[in-house]
Here is the input.
Amino acid sequence: MTKNMLTLALALGSLLPLAAQEKKAEEKSDSLIFTTILENPVTGIKNQNNSGTCWAYSSYAFLESEILKKHPEMTDIDLCESFLVSKTYVDRADRNVRTHGDASFSQGGSFYDAIYGMKHNGLVPEGVMPYPITAYGDSLYNFTSFFPPMEAYVTSIAKSDAKKINPAWKKNVQGMVDNYFGQAPTEFEYKGKKFTPKSFMEYVGLNPDDYVSLTSYTHHPFYESFILEIQDNWRWASSYNLPLDEFMEVMEQSVRNGWTFAWGADVSESGFSRRTGKNRCVASVPATTQSAGVGSDQSRWTGEKAGSKITQNDNQGELTITQEMRQQGYDNWETTDDHGMQIYGIAKDQHGKEYFMMKNSWGDYGPYKGFWYVTKPYVAYKTMNIVINKNAIPKNIRKKLGI
Here is the structure.
């Protein structure tokens, strides 16, 4: 090697680390940095683990925030999801049998299950039921051994050719539920006082009639209510239908005015970044987005299906969402009823773009320890429905809905 060539090689060698540093700095600068604009009180992160019970966790997260709004001193309030789930599964089995299996029986549910359950069964705090019973050696929900046998049993009754159904079948289902969750209490003690589930609901100050479901689709008239056609809406609950701009206004203004809401959405999109990318636990609608084909909250613990693609989120190129896009996504089964969460705040990134702050039920997961940031286009596009306190809805919109 000549002297000139050696000098050139040394020079290039000295530049390589600098180039690598500049690239690293550039990558770091592309990472999103969030600043909270406002956040309403929420309780701690929980973990639904290996179960399809997001509807229970998100509903109760929302109701716990409702309690905190009424009683800021109740900072340790913690509602018992086992109570809600155990009551709901027996009701859902009954509906499945009565419809000869046409109404689905699955681990999922809807926000209305929590509102219905509160009205008819009351509420209980965490700790008065096992969480869960540990016959399988689990400290968190694990439905792998619990749910499939019960599902098979219910299906065998619903699809039976028998001329008469032995009424004992429902007691058998109740027994399966109780063996896993424990028997739901009729009385219990909380902080030195005795309660029933109904009196505890009154103690925390919640009124089931305060809560309504909202959505936004064009296959039904606006400002009227309709039964949202999704399998987990097995109780056939109604949602009020709003134009997209007013639907977004409700969500925006409610959070800014001190309220939270339960958020049901599709999390199967490539922009719902779980496992890859520098901006994990951020949901957006990049212009190149396509359905990841996951279609289920189950992907949280099983991983995405073969062939799915989870892309990195960036801060540029998000789609502008229209009412027509929302409807098309729903009609084509691209927007699916995947997951229940809680929206509780608003933040912005270093570029000034605003996001909704979301509380999840996947445990201490990701860089934000169980919390996520969701862009407003994503919310506009992929929200299935929300459940909210009717008093959080702007008065002019409430008037249009007649509530």
Confidence is low (pLDDT under 50) at residues 3-16, 22-27, 289-315. The radius of gyration is 24 Å. DSSP finds twelve helices and 13 strands in the chain.
